[in-house]
Amino acid sequence: MKLSVYLETSIPSFYHETRIEPEFVAIRNWTRLWWDNSKKGFICYTSEAVFNELESGEYPKKEEKIELIRDIPILEINDEIEEIVEVYISNYLMPKDDLGDALHLAIASFHKMDYLLTWNCKHLANANKKKHIRRINERLRIHTPDVITPLEITED
User: Fold this and answer.
1) DSSP strand E in the chain: where?
2) Is 65 left (phi over 0), alpha (psi -120 to 50) or beta?
3) Nearest to 23, CA basis, from 122, 146, 119, 155
4) Spatial distance between the Cα atoms of 113 and 74, rounded to a whole number of angstroms
5) How many angstroms separate the CA atoms of 4 and 56, rounded?
6) Out of 25, 34, 95, 143, which could bridge 150 as a Cys pair, Cβ 3.0 to 4.6 Å?
7) Which residues are 76's β-sheet partners?
8) pTM of the predicted model over 0.90
9) Domains of the chain
């Protein structure tokens, strides 16, 4: 049985990363390795929130990033998810000024994704946040996805 993966914005963004500093090249390479070799082992989903983030602003390879996820099934954003976002923010799980991270976590949690795949290690894939995320989701009686980077589920 394939596990489910919610792809947040950093995944298509880093797949088409253009910066040449070594850390960005490494993240791009790990993202492509997962996408090209390991993605087929999962059922992938995304959301309109990801498309909205990718469509805003001007940056290199914008269209390629959007096109990469064009055929990925989209998870619904509903009122319950909006309420979960508010709980995350009011409990200082996610910053008030960055609704994207709270929204991605709420979507993945509400829809019972096995994984939330991200390169956002400040607010999402952060060992210091995992216990807090689990505690808040337990209080809300909702599922907690494993929040991980492609590096953690890439086939050898």
Assistant:
1) 3-7, 42-47, 74-75, 115-117, 146-148
2) alpha
3) 119
4) 13
5) 27
6) 34
7) none
8) yes
9) 3-153 (3.40.50.1010)
User: Which residue has 């400040």 as its token pair?
Assistant: 122
Residue type, 154: T
> Token pair for residue 65?
């990033």
User: Hey, which residues does 154 pair with through a beta bridge?
Assistant: none
In eight-state DSSP terms, residue 37 is I
Residues 126, 123, 115, 8: is their CA dihedral positive or negative?
Answer: negative
In sequence order, what are the residues at sequence separation of 6 or more whose Cβ sits closer than 8 angstroms to the Cβ of residue 126?
147
Distance from C-alpha of 97 to C-alpha of 21, rounded to nearest angstrom: 28
pLDDT in tens, 109-137: 999 999 999 998 777 877 888 899 999 99
The dihedrals phi and psi of 74, each to the nearest 5 degrees, come to: -105, 130
Q: What is the spatial distance between Cα 85 and Cα 53, in angstroms, rounded to a whole number?
A: 17
For 86-122, the DSSP string reads: HHHHHTTSS-TT-HHHHHHHHHHHHTT-SEEE-S-TT
The pLDDT tens digits of the residues spanning 13-30 come to 999 999 999 999 999 999
